[in-house]
Amino acid sequence: MQEALAQLPWYHHLALLDKLPDSETRRWYAAKAIEHNWSRNILVMQIETRLLERSGQAVSNFPMTLPKPQSDLARESLKDPYRFDFLGLTDEAQEREIEAALVKHVTEFLLELGAGFAFVGRQVLLDVGGDEFFIDLLFYHLKLRCYVVIELKGGKFKPEHLGQLGFYMTAIDRQVKHEQDNPTIGLLLCKSKNKVVAEYALGDKSQPMGIAEYKMLESLPAELQTSLPSIEQIERELMGDGAG
Question: Which residues form the YhcG PDDEXK nuclease domain (predicted)?
Answer without folding.
Answer: 76-229
